[in-house]
Structures are given as structure tokens and as C-alpha cells.
Design goal:
This protein is an alpha+beta fold and about 290 residues long. The chain has 8 helices and 11 strands. It has 2 domains: about 120 residues; about 120 residues. Helices cover about 40% and strands about 20% of the residues. It is globular.
Amino acid sequence: MAIEYDTLKRVTAQLFDRSLRGIPADTRIALQAADTRETNETARHTLRLMLKSADAAQQANQFICSDAGVPVYFVKVGTQARFGGDVRRAITEGFAELVASIDPPLLPHVTHPLTLERGYAGKGMPIVTFDLVDDCDYVEITCSPKALGSGRWAALQIFSFPDLATIEGFVIDTVIQAGAQTCPPVVVGVGIGGTFDYAAKMAKEGTLRPIGQHHPEPMVAAMEKRLAEAVNQTGFGPMGTGGASTAMAVNVDYCAGHGFTPVAVAFNCWINRRTRARLHNDGRVEVLE
């Protein structure tokens, strides 16, 4: 059997739709934990409003935020997976059909970068990144729409032979420059090393890592802990209301490279949009998030 074209089209559209109407389970737990730890009463009130908003949207089957962002998919392709049609075309057509039928309607966020014309389709849309996974007969698809608040403040800088203090200083400077405009509490992804494009990819993938899952290498996990503590000492707090709940997590990854070392920082807002499913050769669709 093969993963059918219509299944790809349907599932990827559903992933986008579902990402707009709820928050991941780990995000709910992180917001509740932040409420327990927080000492700033305004911040605690804001965290509770966030949870109430997420619950209300899910119960009414409405969007949590009017900025649905642009469609972004990460596709892990098992080397033993088989396809019954064009993968990228299925994702593109699935999104187009969703735009025509979704309730409430989507705002036209897809923007031509040169003319600023806005709509629902455009060159390179939806944005799809493919990776190979050895010895798997399924395709795992993660949808994480990117909206203005968190997308605007991502940053990348290339250093020559930086030490840890330089790298961590850049991360904190990026957080400070963004302030509360990323709609905190956020998930911060950090990519270090490799090349310009690969560091950015690692940073974005860092925002997709489940909250509470730390890097397996102790040195990197310790960096994550230091950065999370530092970010939460900036005092921005939930939606800029103050307190110690600016980040739910800081997730770091790295890649070996040359003497030049790119460092990239990306953000996911408090909604932390992330839906995921696996499509198997035998026709099964396994919803993971």
C-alpha cells in the first residue's frame, strides 16, 4: 500500500485547522505551572485568562487568535514510506480547499514580500521542509503556523569562534529587543553552528520540541536551564504584564561547523501552535498532537 494523495491533502489541512483552535497539552501544563510559581498577581491573572481563552475557543470551535499566520509544515519522510501522489501538491491543494471552507474565514496573511499584496496563496506557500528518517515506513507531519508576533522577532547573527558567554548574550539580547511583542510566555528555540540556513532550521525546530524535554547532552541542557532562568528574569511576563513567566522553555540544539558560528533565535507565542500526525503505508493515520 501507499500513503494516498487524498489522505495527505485531508490530514495536512486538518492539522492547520486544529492548530488554530487549541493549545498543545504540554503548553497547558506549562501555563498552569507558571501560574503556580508566579508571584505577580497581574501576571497570574493574565495566565488564567490565557487558559480560559484557550478553553473557550476549543469549546466553541473558534480560533484562539485572529492572526492565523502562514502555513508551515515540517515533514519527516521515512525511507520506506511510499506515496500515491505528489506530496507538496497535496499540501498546497489541501490548504487551498481549507481556505475556501474554513469557518470562521481566515484573514489573508500570505504576503508578497516585494509588492506587499496579500492573499491566501503565493510563491513557496505553504512552506514545507522535508527530512529523511531511516528505517521508517511512515511520514510524520508537524504543522506550526507562523504569525506576526513571534515571527517578526526571530534573529540570526554569525560569530567567529564565540565562547558560551557570547552565544548566550546574543540570545538574551534578542529576547530583550523583542520584549513582550512575541506574546509571552514563549517557547524560545536556539540553533548554534552549522551554516546560516541550518542554524535557523534548528532554532525553528527547537520551538517544536515538547516543553520539559531537554537536550540529551548535559552541557547543552545546562545552557537551556541558564537561558530559561535569565529570560524569566527580564520581567516582561505574560503579554508584558510583568512577573517571572516570560518563557515556558528555551530549547537549544547545535551542529558542528566551521570557525564561523551562526546563532539563530526563534519564538513560539503562548498558544505554541503545534499539531502532528503520522501517516503509515497501511493507510493508518496516527494523531500525535
